[in-house]
Amino acid sequence: MIAGYIFLYLPIVTLIVFSFNDSKMVTLWGGFTFKWYGVIAHDTEVLDAFKLSLKVALMSATASVLLGTLAAFAMVRYKSFWGRTAFSAHINAPLVVPEVITGLSLLLFFVFCERLFGWPDRGILTIWAGHTSVGMAYAAVVIQSRLLEMDKSLEEAAMDLGCKPFQVFTLVTLPMIAQSLLAAWLLTFTLSLDDVVATAFLSGPGSTTLPIVILSRARLGLDPTVNAIATITVAVVSVGVFAGSLWLNRQETRRAAEQAAAYREGMQHAVAA
Amino acid sequence: MKTQNIAHALFNNWGRRSVIGIPYLFLILLFTVPFLVVLKISVSETDGIRFQDLLSYVDGAVTLKIKLSNYLFLGSDPLYVETYWSSIKFAALNTAICLFIGYPFAYFMARSPANLRPALLMLVTLPFWTSYLLRVYAWKGLLDDHGVFNNILIWLHLIDSPIRMMHTAFSMTIGMVYAYLPFMILPLYANLVKMDLRLIEAAKDLGATPWQTFWLVTVPLSRNGIIAGAMLVFIPSMGEYVIPELLGGPGTLMIGRVLWDEFFSNNDWAMASAVAVTMVGLILVPLAIFNRYQADSGGVRGV
Amino acid sequence: MQQKHQGAADLTGDASFVRIDQLTKRFDEVAAVDDVSIDIRKGDIFALLGSSGCGKSTLLRMLAGFETPTAGGIFLEGVEISQLPPYERPINMMFQSYALFPHLTVFENIAFGLKRDKMPKDQIAERVEAMLNIVQLKPYAKRKPHQLSGGQQQRVALARCLAKSPKLLLLDEPLGALDRKLREQTQFELHNIIKKVGVTCVLVTHDQEEAITMADRIAVMSNGRFLQVGQPHEIYETPNCLFVAGFIGDVNLFKGTVEVDEPDHVVIGTPECRHFVSHGITGTLDMQVSIALRPEKICLQEHEPTIEQRESAQEHGYNCARGMIDAVAYFGKFTLFHVKLDSGMVIKATRENAARHEETQLVRGQRVYAWWDGSDVVVLTN
């Protein structure tokens, strides 16, 4: 197992180490330096691409969660409607279809549309559409599993106490699934930020995302600026994931302790009575 | 039990329709229709850069023109046949190696102390959250002729000149295993951690050696995890593009990369479309098997 | 809202505060509730008792409004409500899982329904306070549900239902989620609160003890139908069919034929003995019948019962069988004996351990006489 972890982390560690390498030969150690970070800080191609990536990721994660929530809700709450099987196939399909196909088919579709309506141009909108169609499938899966484990009587109780269906959703369902919405948002956000294949098909001139830049540089060979970008990514993600799981862990521990205390208290009452 | 709820009936009017309709419409528009476009282009006659309509209405007669030459070419051209075959081989090899490494990994994770497990799990999922592209790129630095591994080996005087590792089947396989290992570990772990340990104790109590217990009890019980993990690795690795592009070489043919080249380098949209349609067909086979298994085990649980 | 009057029946009176009229619910052609009719008195606790899948929960959910009946009607104070959505019914339900909103405090949970009625804030606070007093949870108002014990959660759920002053309170397995130890105490508390508030209540349970101690009237359900409706002691002492007799408590069943059929008594012959029944039955001579006898009604002793021990001299020679003690199980407050009668049938008999040391210990292998009173025998003719 330890060997497994080494296998998982060795490449990442070397990636980081060589981002501080002061040598043109990326793999030969030539002393410690921060210079590659300086280089990317002034590299407009990287910075512009990063901005676009961030924009696309924010938009598509948000849209994915909104659409994914609706889709998950439809799957879990409506057990029979016309075309339910087709609907579930539609939700799951983007998860298994290779990205080259998603990218190709969307591009051909957009080209087709453009010829018919003169719209849309390839750019942020088409990238967004591609990321969202895949992202909503992921979001739907995450939210669906939360909805399934949620006690249905909570919603019934709300209705019993006077909530109309929409109030049931906003006052009870939404707070119950909030955590999974956040998880789905983060997942689709990173997926979008990371996507390269579908994006390559869907991006037009002047709309290059960060992964496209990385891919084009990586194709040409080893490039220390890519290492620097990687190091920043890894740092941000690890801090985020660490903090997130620490917080979750603390919440859970506290909750368990409170539950145990309440149980003990209850039993003492019972014995005393 | 099917329940026709009053609330649902009330929601029927506009709420229910939009809850189902909006995502449905979105998926049809951005998933099904585009795929139909691909399907159409793959069998269309090209007229310069325009594709002709399949159905034409000339002199009161409806003509349906389907050009299957792209598919015939796919089936007869040794390069394509070779590519499909090699994609399947690499995907299968990748699945086998991932299972071989992932199973013991997941097993020890699931049997480690309960308070350690969240941390171990997080360590597996952490690379997941970092860029996939960058993780693949990292292997370039390790496996290059002047990469870390060769440098270390030369420095240790184990070899005199660098071993060629990049752009070979070896480098591509290692990259694929690396990228897809977590997809194997996670479902296996989820399965193994839920396993009733009393069954294993019972097997031991009945005289099975640890080795027998593992093969006769643990492995059969984790069948669903194995199948789920295998599918999660096999299906996407068949259509992989980034890894063959960055780590593979001329000898490692993968369909995803061929499709990309047809489209971007040769500008042959019809051919690219035909490749895509065939690829979907190839993916549907393992998927159908997977669904069958799921339905089977579901039935067993239901009894 | 339309009012349907059913013949000359008094729909608004206290006797039929809730009227369930030929109610049927089918799921895919399977009838979960099959043509059920009942009137529930105002202020009564009415229990629906049956094993899982008997239709009791479906009936309750139709009362709450979560299911629409396939046929029939539900009237509350004479008003047909079966087509109203749950949020428009003056009915509240306490769920088996309690369904407390985990993201809200105890106070907010109880106030939840009141807010939906657009009650002014100060009145809500007052009402919640009053509810917390009733269920004795005032110090816990600020806690979240997971910070409460099972018993406390149950009381919050009850308070949340009662806060809206429903005309009808529905309880779905109210004690099902509690530890065994807590049950008995909670059962009494729950009963007292409901009676104090005076709300009419329909309760669903699979636990016969719960039904017997909580309810004023019980309906025993099976396959979507009511088998018997009556007060707890009626159901227990005079079950009307084999299913009810077997479902409520332990029972010994003898099969035999009617040998003497008089208006004031009957004699039934079984392979074990001749049974003298000190009341008339609706049956005919030579009819095949079953006899139900509760284990606690059977006396075991070494010598033959004397005439003095008997309820009446007539019974001498009847209602008595010889056998051998086959098994003894000590349960603390009582002891259960399995007695193998000479006919080969094994019967169960219990003896209360009132004194600390019984003077006559019965042991395994001992030969005994098992006998009982003619008034304790229940004859089941179907």
What does this structure look like?
The complex is a heterotrimer of chains A (273), B (303) and C (382). Chain A has a domain at 44-220: MetI-like fold (Orthogonal Bundle), CATH 1.10.3720. Chain A is built from eleven helices and no strands. Chain A has helices spanning 2-17, 35-41, 44-77, 84-96, 99-117, 124-149, 152-160, 165-194, 197-202, 210-220, 224-272. Chain A is flat. Chain B folds into two domains: 6-64, no CATH class; 76-302, Orthogonal Bundle (MetI-like fold), CATH 1.10.3720. Chain B has a two-stranded antiparallel sheet with strand order 1-2. With 382 residues, chain C is α+β, with helices and mostly antiparallel strands. Chain C has helices spanning 56-64, 106-116, 121-134, 150-163, 180-197, 208-214, 232-237, 242-247; strands at 18-27, 30-40, 45-49, 71-76, 79-80, 91-94, 168-172, 200-205, 217-222, 225-230, 252-261, 266-269, 274-277, 288-293, 299-301, 320-330, 334-341, 346-352, 367-371, 378-380. In chain C, the strands form four sheets. A six-stranded mixed sheet of chain C has the order 6-7-8-3-9-10, sandwiched between helices. In chain C, strands 13-12-11-14-20 form a five-stranded antiparallel sheet, with no helix packed on it. The model of chain C is unreliable at 1-11 (pLDDT under 50). At the A-B interface, helix 1, helix 3, helix 4, helix 5 and helix 6 of A face helix 1, helix 3, helix 4, helix 5 and helix 7 of B.
